[in-house]
Design a protein that fits this description.
Length: 481
Amino acid sequence: MGTDLSLSPDEIRSRLEALRSRDLPTHGGRTLAYVYDSGLATADAIGREVLASFSSTNGLDPTAFPSLLAMENDLVGIAGRLVDAPDGFAGVVTSGGTESILLAVLAARDGRPDVTSPRMVLPTTAHAAFHKAAHWLRVEPVFVDVDPVTKRAVPEAMAAAIDDRTVLVVASAPSYAHGVIDPVEPIATAAAAAGVRCHVDACIGGWVLPHLRATEPAQLPWTFAVEGVTSLSLDLHKYAYTPKGVSILLHASAALRRPHLFASARWPGYTMLNTTAQSTKSGGPLAAAWAVVHHIGGDRYVDLARTAREATLALAAVADGIPGLSLAAQPDSTLLALTTDEMCDVFTISDEMLARGWYVQPQMRFGDLPATVHLTLSAATAAASEQIAHDLADATAAAREAGPAHVPAELVAMATSIDPATLDEATLTGLLTLAGLAGEAGELVLPERMAPLNAMLDALPPEVREVLLLGVVDRLVRPTG
């Protein structure tokens, strides 16, 4: 206690530069997950400027900062028009897609107080944020397998899973894992027939798909124009290219939104009044999003969407012809998922791509759905699409020459034998040591190449995979000093 932690501005800049030296690049189109780059320097500049200038404002009380309320209402209105929201619709700005999904599930649950043991029906490809919502909010998830070829939800199976305890039915536009739009129309129709809400998770597609309508009239319907859709989420910090973290949750009416609003006057302080999960929240991300959206404008968003989409289709065509690779599904948007043959694995390909300066995301198998390489293409990526294709072919050839990552049988046997409910520190340390991930003091040591670790995790049941990764994260996030 009492130690002086102060640094000069130059020392702070130097420290931060050193800390960021191993981070993935956020601009230039080489990180094909997590970040979205418009390639527009002026949009980035105005976003940073406004983010800083509004960073001290607080969205807790809209009457104290009416500028934030005005910008939120404007953004909600713009988003609503993009996705065909009906008259009387309502919405809120949240911190990201997960918060939007949590609130959608909360509204569905609390909108049906007559259901004491609520359920929600979702395809197995629905975003894991719904799993988090199910866990936190005690809404039982009912998972429905998707079509193994198209990777889309199967409407008949979704409808059959609805019962008198169902409070919400979910569809994706598109699904993150495979980049395909679920058949929202028959799913929403089934939900409406049962008197159940239907949420469309368009967090990743909600800003890009509307701008592709003119050139892709055959796009599957997914907006509020589909009868029975009651709520929809879309993120601005994805394809609206705004700073993190801003998402929008829309409801078909204010009455449908009301269950996730919160007020409490039952204490001697100020009356707590929230529209989202957060109370205090910086106005910086909201203001920056407003600035970037208005700076880019509708016409340029069309151009950016088409640029990213054309690059996705071009890369899909090339990748499908690379020996060892094939499309997991024909992409409906700007996401691409690739599978491999038995000569190599997606984890080694991901490592090989990283060695060539590209971050692509390995996705592990689930049920009958194979492991895939996931690429999220943004507008800034398009200029380098030919280089991506070249390096992807090179990386795949190197992975085929190396062969699939080797996973020691004893390691898989030990991990599989673990009871997730009783995993202790000693067992975790032993497993990490066997996997070559533990130092002399038992500390976590991550390898430079992740393929062996990812291949081991891929071989495990999901529940064991989850508990092991929780143990890894627990050891990663520890105090320093």
